[in-house]
Amino acid sequence: MPLLKRKAKLEKSTASEYLRDDDEVFHCEVTDEIFKDYEEYCERIILVNSMVWSCEMTGKNNLTYAEALDSEKAARRSLKDFPMELRIPILYLAAKTKRCSFAEMAEDVFNYVRERYFVGESVEACLEGENWRESHVLSVTAPKQQPGSKVTLPASAYCYEVEQFESSSSGQVVVAAHDRVRRRKGVFSRDKCRLFLKQFVEMENTVIVIKKTALEKYNIGKVHFEQIFTGSPPDFPSSKRLMKTSISPAKGQPKPGSATKAKPAKKPSPEKKGQQSMDKFVKKSDKADAPKPKPDPAGKKSGQDLADKMRRAEEQMKQRREDEKAKKKEKNARLQAYLKEWQKVKDDLLLEDHKIIPKGTPVVIEGIDSKHIGDFLSVLEFVHLYAETLKTKEFFHNGLDIETFRKALTAKEYASCFSDLIQMMLQTIFSLQEDEAEEYNEGGSIDVSNGLGEYTH
């Protein structure tokens, strides 16, 4: 059930319990609730669409109600595939942790379990070649250690006695090294470990512990570490908060079990009190009557010289800082002036970064002299720009390109492209002349705007 601001759950509406057949109601599809009051319905719609919900299983926050429901459904689907063989080992290891944070507990358990395989677990083993087949862990063996040693061996030091299935040699029992055993991909991950532990933990005296119902359900109290693995159980580190609380009592407080007792302070008697005050008075009078030492003129002079040197040194440091500040200010002013001058728009001849123009590559067209290249390209550009007016497509289906124009000027053939080019030009000239004549006939007169006069037809 999604949590509202990580605390309270949604209180369902009870309006559906007191309804008649002819009552008008409002249905909230997200929560499947019915409301008789429209304002309550609007408040519920705004609430479920606000990003104030969190997923109870994953702990994700800043979700809407629908997103939190989807997150819980996805978490439950993920836990359905969680292997049964790992549940007791994980809960047993989690019960051995001493953490104040659930994230730290889950990380401790995951780091220990991810590269270790437990008795009864289904794994994949590679016994021959590179063929990985489903297997079953029968027992775990480790190198011999000194008696009473609590050193945690690395995961690579263990070997596993496995029984392989789904092969020609069904039921074969072999001892496999650590690197020849693995879990199926996606069976155990950090997220799945956190999801599984999340539903079985609670806070007890600032420590994250396994719920008593889970301990009783899986009989964790009767499980011994040798039944699920080998060697001694791991000694997980404690949280810093727990380590601080376990420090010895503060200074000034008697240690528990100590035989010494604090003695009550004795009050001074009136006679001793008067004697102490008289002693203080006598000491003060003695100090007052003592002759004062005469000042040494040499020492006074040396102290004055030292003070003068220190004063001069301070003045020099102050002057040096002012000079550096002035130099820096002047440098910034020059830089700003240079940038302002550099950003001005200048004539090309006044620019300072002139470079020699690189020599161009000469354009060579077969049959066309180099001194006529400019005219050749000018005509070609003219035809390209006024292609609609010249109706180039009627004479040259693919347009007048460089190669066609070159052949028209150099080829000595009868009825060549040159004749088509001349015909295109002449036809355009005659057509334009006819258009001008029609305009002249329609207007009947020509207005001369340069002041020479007016001609009327």
From TrEMBL:
Keyword Nucleus: yes
DDT domain sequence ranges: 370-435
Amino acid composition bias (Basic and acidic residues), ranges on this chain: 268-307, 312-327
Keywords on record: Nucleus
Gene Ontology cellular-component terms listed: CHRAC; nuclear chromosome
GO BP terms, alphabetized: chromatin remodeling; positive regulation of DNA replication; regulation of DNA-templated transcription; regulation of heterochromatin formation
Domain of life of the native organism: Eukaryota
Subcellular location: Nucleus
Residue span(s) of domain WAC: 23-130
Pfam short name (any one): WAC_Acf1_DNA_bd
GO molecular function, one term: DNA binding
InterPro entries in the record: BAZ1A (IPR047171), DDT_dom (IPR018501), WSTF_Acf1_Cbp146 (IPR013136)
Region Disordered, annotated ranges: 229-307, 312-331
Main subcellular location of this protein, as a coarse class: nucleus
Protein name in the entry: (diamondback moth) hypothetical protein
Protein source organism: Plutella xylostella
